[in-house]
Design brief:
Layout: E1 2-10, H1 17-28, E2 41-47, H2 53-64, E3 70-76
Antiparallel strand pairs: 1-2, 1-3
Length: 80
Amino acid sequence: MARVVVNVMPKAEILDPQGQAVVRALGRIGVSGVSDVRQGKRFELEVDDSVTTEELDKVAEMLLANTVIEDYEVTQLEVK
């Protein structure tokens, strides 16, 4: 078994209203120095050795991310 992480983030050119709301809230609670926040999603998948890198990329591209407005990255975590 392996643990795979898929991080999905809005593309840089896409407006991120949730991130902007966080930036405004930081100012209201007295935190300064943060100029931008981008909010994304993290998926953790437990997979066995039969799942290929190509299949993981297909899952990320077709199911987990909206590739019109989001970028994704698939990373395999070290097994401990």
